[in-house]
């Protein structure tokens, strides 16, 4: 295959007519005996031949192998350098472990559970606003994007005076589909805002993670690293959760039988959310590079070669789900899916994302039992090939 692809294609390459299923191209790759090697463009590192891993066992082996690293890579001449101290995906080894420790307490399941009342409050307020604006809204803007952005803002302790900019800048920075120039311009603006935010909280401490980091509760960390760490939380935690709320709602609108199971509580909400995460697999992982000649599963990967994994096809591998992996089935026993990745970079925000999804989806359908799509499903558009996270552009609904 010689076609030039951008890195988002492993995430967003879906079946025409069925926005939830992997495209024939990806399915074909997953069925091959050997991984595909193809030139792939990545905004931060340019174009390089890339090994695409798409089967469950290969993806798990790759993500569990610390000889495949993201960060500290030689950049092609002229490419803008965006390495950020404190930004966990850019780090590995002892430095990475230290940064993960800084976040561990704030994202531990027990601590995240205490955020339930806050998330419920945010959801109820958004649903009230929707109801007042109704009987129709764009569910992406009115609900899906708003909820995670308010929750992350609260978690970090963003002061009320900086709320508005926080929500618009954090929404803009996750648009990986933009051109490299737009992407880096946005990243620059966002980075400057986060620097100001940390400086403001240094002057006037608030209740939240940024102040806790400054107090050194999890170890020594300087303000530059706090900027990198908290920027990662905003970037990685915002669009992912928003995309899952919107696509999850769409999948349930398209499958009234599954929606009924969730709402009459004949399945556990937690299990239903795991199945939605597996079935939709909205995320890719940051590209990895081998730092020596290695073997992943049975496959040789040369030092310096780039590797990308498809979580979508991995999570639909018949060896993981023998009974209809391409079917959404909320009654399924949860499997060890990798929608949050695997290995040392596995998503630290997964318990927060689960909490938001477990509360947001039932709350939406309980408030609006008559919720329906306001346009034919085939008129919806989905993030294109450059995107890092799969999602629906807008979701007009009515009740
Ligand atoms: C990493 C998915 C929500 C923060 C990751 C990775 C995946 C992922 C697949 C691994 C990337 C890799 O290995 O290269 C998701 C999905 C979410 C979600 C599907 C929602 C449904 C969140 C939330 C936060 C968050 C709510 C925080 C508020 C992060 C961070 C990393 C990460 C900081 C980088 C970790 C590291 O490099 O050590 N996420 N995520 N994510 N996620 Fe999430």
From TrEMBL:
Pfam families: p450. The keyword Iron applies. SUPFAM superfamilies: Cytochrome P450. Keywords: Heme, Iron, Metal-binding, Monooxygenase, Oxidoreductase. Transmembrane segments: none annotated. Coiled coil: none annotated. It comes from Actinacidiphila acidipaludis. This is Cytochrome P450. Belongs to the cytochrome P450 family. InterPro entries: Cyt_P450 (IPR001128), Cyt_P450_B (IPR002397), Cyt_P450_CS (IPR017972), Cyt_P450_sf (IPR036396).
